[in-house]
Amino acid sequence: MNLGTRNNRVLKPLEDMLKGAAGIVNLEGPAAEAEPGPGGKKIVLINAPETLSQLRDVGVRVAGIANNHSLDAGAEGPRQTAEALERAGMVASGGPVGPAVFSVGGLPMVVAAYDLSGGVPRNLEEGLHAARQRGNLLIASFHVAGPPSYLPHPELRSAVKIAIAAGAKIVVAHGTHAIGPVERRGNLVVAWGLGNLVFACDCTNEREGLLLEIVLRDGEIDYASVIPIEVGLKGEPARLSADANGVFDLLEGIGSVKLVRQGRKATF
Hints:
Elements lengths: L14 H4 L4 E4 L26 H5 L2 E5 L12 H11 L3 E3 L6 E5 L2 E9 L8 H9 L4 E7 L10 H12 L4 E5 L7 E3 L4 E3 L6 E2 L8 E10 L2 E11 L1 E2 L5 E2 L3 H10 L6 E3 L2 E3 L1
Parallel strand pairs: 1-2, 2-3, 5-6, 6-7, 7-9, 10-13
Antiparallel strand pairs: 4-5, 8-9, 11-12, 12-14, 12-16, 15-16
């Protein structure tokens, strides 16, 4: 997601539904006051620091900052973003700050965010094993750059395999702006593409996004659900999808597990 430089309340229509959840997002682009315009880069993504409060207002606890736009405000951008998130009441994950550790209902959880736009990091296996030791439940978050695709890129398949072997129980992917299949493998959930949530940049037209809901019981995954949304593009607010069944049909058509439909969400 990218909030841009205008503090529009683009998440307001989703507030009631997200209330009470411990949210995790990928924040694409640093939190910075202005766009420095790195030479030669066609697209520069920035999140004005004052926009971050709306993430906290809808329950976001962790924001991943490992993506191909993390340095759009210069080399200090990731650390400045982590500091801005901390001031807004959240914690960053990925890049120079490493995994994020937080607690939900007394359960220590770890979010390890990685950028795959340059391929699978050489230290991925080591890093995930170390992250797993810091909490009871490991969430791996992967960012993939490239054209929109419903199907996972090869580097993502490799990274997910490593994450599962390292003990991750929830694995999510984002970055191509397109949604992807969802899987349940026993006490393990993989979402191969969540699409966008909101995106202020005039650089994507993908309007289908997914919210992934995970409910835990006694430290284990009780059930998982997907909730289709209409992405908030170019400063417009994100909303619940008007055609949830159409999205569920698409998800099953591209290889998801069977979805149990319950109105605007489906469990798996």
